[in-house]
Write a structure and sequence with these properties.
Elements lengths: L5 E12 L2 E12 L3 E5 L6 H7 L10 E9 L2 E2 L7 H7 E4 L10 H12 L4 H14 L3 H4 L12 H14 L4 E4 L8 H14 L4 E5 L3 H7 L2 E7 L5 E8 H10 L5 H4 L3
The structure holds adenosine-5'-triphosphate.
The site of adenosine-5'-triphosphate (ATP) has 12 residues, from helix 1.
């Protein structure tokens, strides 16, 4: 069996918003080219942890951190970190699509153009590849210059994934995978995640245990400690976690065990 390399190493990491501690003493190694799910009860800091991995938290409030998060050995909380570059390498897709009021093409091209100039033919290739990788090419290839906001909700999410993929991230963070989507749109996104499995490290937050068991290789369970601060309760292979769940007769094992 090949050795699993850590894409992200989190060591004794705590995060405060305005001196209010949100997550405490999290240590976890996130494996490269694997899918890791983050689960746990509402408000225990799952999204905050996800946002800490590319410092999106700093766009949302006054943040203080303790401990370290290393991305292939580089401390992302170090002084010299280029945040734009970091957020391209570790890219976030949100539950609610956040497209620009631009064409389908221009939405996907947006981040690529920010990095630097590409000849039109080169840019066309990058856009096409990203749309194909996000399983949406067939649905949009004849209307690339129409507004992205005319797409269905599920298509908009896949377009956000295409936009993230266009800048060739190494890690894709997905907050609340498929929240509020109908079963067909959900299955298209789940298929897409399956297809991306071999190319990327994916970390997603989900409340859907069935989805977590089907899609993820590893699962991180967050919960509250006695002071109502979010903590990592368990990190293990998803298969192991789920089989324990059945052994203990809990459908919602991951949620209940650490209360
Ligand atoms: N920008 C912010 N400023 C201050 N507090 C925040 C901020 N964002 C989140 N929090 C607080 O941090 C705690 C954890 O929130 P977070 O969104 O990370 O939880 P979650 O586990 O993802 O919840 P859910 O499953 O409901 O989405 C909550 O108490 C929330 O109010």
């Amino acid at each position: 069996m090949s050795k699993i390399i850590s894409a992200i190493q989190v060591k004794n990491f705590s995060l405060y918003y305005e001196n209010h501690k949100i997550i405490e003493d999290v240590s976890i190694d996130i494996p490269q080219n694997q899918i890791t799910a983050i689960i746990g009860p509402s408000g225990c800091g799952k999204s905050t942890f996800l946002k800490s991995l590319n410092r999106i938290t700093e766009l949302e409030g006054k943040v203080k951190t303790e401990g370290t998060i290393e991305f292939f050995g580089q401390n992302i909380y170090g002084r010299r970190v280029n945040l734009n570059r970091l957020r391209r390498q570790i890219s976030t897709v949100y539950a609610k699509p956040n497209l620009f009021p631009l064409s389908i093409y221009d939405n996907v091209a947006y981040g690529v153009k920010l990095i630097g100039w590409n000849p039109k033919t080169e840019l066309d290739k990058i856009i096409q590849l990203a749309l194909k990788s996000a399983n949406i090419w067939e649905e949009v290839k004849n209307k690339l210059h129409k507004s992205a906001l005319e797409l269905s909700y599920g298509q908009q999410i896949r377009l956000c994934i295409a936009r993230a993929l266009a800048v060739k991230p190494q890690i894709l963070l997905i907050d609340e995978l498929c929240a509020g989507l109908d079963p067909l749109a959900t299955s298209k996104i789940e298929e897409l995640i399956e297809c991306l499995r071999s190319e990327l490290t994916i970390i997603f937050v989900s409340h859907n245990i069935q989805q977590v068991s089907q899609l993820s290789d590893f699962t991180a369970v967050f919960n509250y400690n006695e002071h109502q601060i979010g903590q990592l309760s368990e990190f293990s292979a998803t298969k192991k976690l789920i089989s324990h769940s059945f052994e203990h007769g809990h459908r919602d094992y991951a949620y209940t065990r650490f209360r």
